[in-house]
Amino acid sequence: MKRYIFGVLLAVTVLTLTGCTKSSGFDKLDQWTESWKKGQQTYFGYPCNQQSALHDFYEWYVGTGLDRVNLNNAGDPMTDHPWSMSTQAFEREVIEFFTPLYGFDKDDVWGIVTYSGTDGNNHGIYFGANDLMNRTGQLPIVYVSDEAHYSNMRLCDLQHLDVRLIKSDAMGRMIPEELEASLDTTRPALIVYAMGSTFKGAIDDIEALNAVLAKHPSMETYRHVDAALFGGYLPFTEHQRMVSSKEMHFESIAISGHKFFGIDSPSGLFLCTRKVYDNQNNFNVTYLNGNMKMISCSRDAVQPLKFWWLIQKVGYDQWSKQANQMLDCTAYLEQELKKIGWPCWRNEYSNTVFFRRPSPELCSLYNLALGYDEAFGGELAHLVVMQHVTKEKIDGFVKRLTND
Ligand SMILES: Cc1ncc(COP(=O)(O)O)c(C=O)c1O
């Protein structure tokens, strides 16, 4: 009964806040809309910013009649070409905005707005393998931690690359000694660093791992950073150097757009050095006026516009505020869980807390993501503190946990 009243109150609050009760004219669709609105408020298990700032973007978009224009970003946003029904001028500005934040030089960068973090990793692994092949005549071995996101393993499988899964420590960071022991120095090394492993929120110690690679100067290397979630907020904190190519010496990085940035559907960023881009295989496409080095031909033209819009409307200062609030609330969550004696753990720089798994009802109510690790007593769940997870909501969660 309590849960029912809670649900009704939430629904009323959401409807009041959004002011949206418009019917689609289809019952099934209306019911579905109501159900996700309720769920959104207690959606704590996955790293999506549920406070998308795109409402006025949609008003503008429909208002101008752009919803009736077929846009397509086919082609390279960093190269001029004749196809004009695109938003590549804005895409280029998005990449320019993020270039210094990820520690690239504006004269030595190439990038695109991707379909997702996975699409960015696909480019990182594909570009890395090509770069190493063209430098050495040999395909690389890919080294990635056993806690990294599965997309990296899937993409190596897709690209038929040899992979070595490197053991991570209990908190989820790749163990440098394990990397050292696994290296085959007769072949080039493509290493994927996890900048926020998916379940435990671990950041691979890039400096220590780079030091391992540096012991083998004759082995050619390429370093890609999978920073799907953490690459969103870290540039706006005092820990910016963690995602800086200048400081951490990586060749490429992939970030999701729908996580920290709150783009309302999958999207992302991929940036790499110009040298890497220039060392890709050429497939000359005359009608697009250039060498098309990215994987997809047609590319979404609306996502770059949304990114561009958010840069203008939210921008550096607001993102800094949000990023610091998230880390502050994460520390608060950890503190409150410890206060009630609920076993919990958190990595440095992380907005993810993992803890002993609560009841299935609570996991379902808060949409918690589930994990399992004997080293932490077996069944676990995690909560990702995004912009919509405030201290008040954390209090509500901890109170329910106490009664669980
Ligand atoms: C570390 C990491 N890499 C990659 C991905 C995949 O990103 P996307 O869902 O944007 O494809 C995720 C998704 O959760 C992730 O956590």
Please, could you describe this protein's structure?
With 404 residues, this protein is of the alpha/beta class. The protein has 2 domains: 2-50 and 316-403, Aspartate Aminotransferase, domain 1; 68-313, Aspartate Aminotransferase, domain 2 (3-Layer(aba) Sandwich). Helices cover 42% and strands 15% of the residues. The longest helix has 25 residues, at 315-339. It is globular, with a radius of gyration of 22 Å. The protein starts with a helix and ends with a helix. The relative contact order is 0.15. The structure holds pyridoxal-5'-phosphate (PLP). Pyridoxal-5'-phosphate is lined by residues 116-118, 149, 151, 194, 196, 198, 226, 228-229, 256, 266, 268.
In short:
With 404 residues, the chain is an alpha/beta fold. It has 15 helices and 13 strands. 42% of the residues lie in helices and 15% in strands.
Strand order of the largest sheet: 1-7-6-5-4-2-3
CATH class of the largest domain: Alpha Beta
Low-confidence stretches: 1-19
Category from helices, strands and their pairing: alpha/beta
Q: Tell me, what's the shape?
A: globular
Mean pLDDT score, rounded? Answer: 92
Which value, in Å, is the CA radius of gyration?
A: 22 Å
CATH level 3 topology of the largest domain: Aspartate Aminotransferase, domain 2
Question: Portion of residues in helices?
Answer: 40-55%
CATH architecture of the largest domain: 3-Layer(aba) Sandwich
At the fourth CATH level, what is the homologous superfamily of the largest domain? Answer: Type I PLP-dependent aspartate aminotransferase-like (Major domain)
Classify the beta-strand content into a percent band. Answer: 15-25%
Q: How does the major sheet shape up?
A: 7 strands, mixed
- What is the first-to-last residue Cα distance? 16 Å
Number of strands: 13
Number of helical segments?
A: 15
- Bound ions, cofactors and other small molecules, one mention each: pyridoxal-5'-phosphate
Order of helices and strands: HHHHEHEHEHEHEHHEEHEEHHEEHEEH
